[in-house]
Amino acid sequence: MKEPPRQSDINLLDPGFKKKFDLWRSEVLKLHPNARVFESKRSQERQERLYAQWRTRPGKIVTNIKHIGMHWQGKAVDVVFLNNQNQPTRSWPYDDLIALAKKYNIKNLKPFETCHFEDNGKSLSLPQTIMLVFETIYKEKFWSLPPEKKITTQVGKRYAMIKDKSPSEQIQELCWLIGIKVEEMNQKI
C-alpha cells in the first residue's frame, strides 16, 4: 500500500485555529526563521497508517490517536526546523515555541510529541485578538516595544476597561497605551 501523502498547507487548517496559528507563527519565524510546518491537516487514511507504526507495521510510535485526531480536524500542526543541510530536524530547543504558544491558547504535547502544537479549545477574546494583532503590527512597523510597554503583559489590566468598547475604541485605547496617536498608527499601517 502506498504511503498516504503528508500535507503541510496551513490554508487547510480550521479557520478558528488558523487565526491563532498565524499570529503565533509570525512570532516563531522572527525567532527561528528555519522553523517549518512539517504537517498540518491529515487524512484519516494517513492517521490510521501512522497509528499502525510499531503496532502492526515497522516504525516507531508517532501517534496514540487512531481516529479523528486534531490533525484530521485541521486543529494541529507539527513544526520542525531546517538544519544546515536544509533537512527537517526535531533536534532543536522547542521551549521558546511552547512558551509563545501558550500566549495564543495553543498547547504542546511535550514530552510525548514536542513538535506537535494544537488548538486547546479556548478562543481568544476580541480584545485579546486585537491586542495581539496590534502588538504584531506595532513591532513590524515601529521595530520593537520597550519592555515596560509590552501590550500582552497588560491584557489582564486593560481587558476590563476595553471589553465593552467597539473595535475602533479599543484601537484608540491601545494607541494611548503605547503612547502614539491613532493617526500615526494609520500612517504606518
Structural description of this entry:
The chain has 189 residues and is an alpha+beta fold. It contains 7 helices and 5 strands; from the N terminus they run H-E-H-E-E-H-E-E-H-H-H-H. Strands 1, 2, 3, 4 and 5 form a 5-stranded antiparallel sheet that branches. Helix 1 runs parallel beside helix 4 and helix 4 crosses helix 6. The longest helix has 17 residues. The mean pLDDT is 77.
Q: Can you lay out the helices and strands and say which pair or pack?
A:
Blueprint: H1 15-31, E1 35-39, H2 44-52, E2 76-82, E3 88-89, H3 95-103, E4 106-109, E5 113-119, H4 126-142, H5 155-162, H6 167-178, H7 182-188
Antiparallel strand pairs: 1-2, 2-3, 2-5, 4-5
Helix pairs in contact: 1-4, 4-6
- Coarse shape: elongated
Helix content: 40-55%
Rg (C-alpha, Å): 19 Å
Major sheet attributes: 5 strands, antiparallel
User: Could you say which structural class the secondary elements and strand pairing correspond to?
Assistant: alpha+beta
Amount of beta strand: 5-15%
User: Regions with pLDDT < 50 over 5+ consecutive residues?
Assistant: none
Count of discrete alpha- or pi-helical segments spanning 4 or more residues: 7
Number of strands: 5
The SSE string, one letter per element, is: HEHEEHEEHHHH
Oligomer: single chain
Task: Let me know the average pLDDT.
Answer: 77
Report how far apart the termini are.
Answer: 51 Å
Give a short synopsis of this structure.
The protein contains 7 helices and 5 strands.
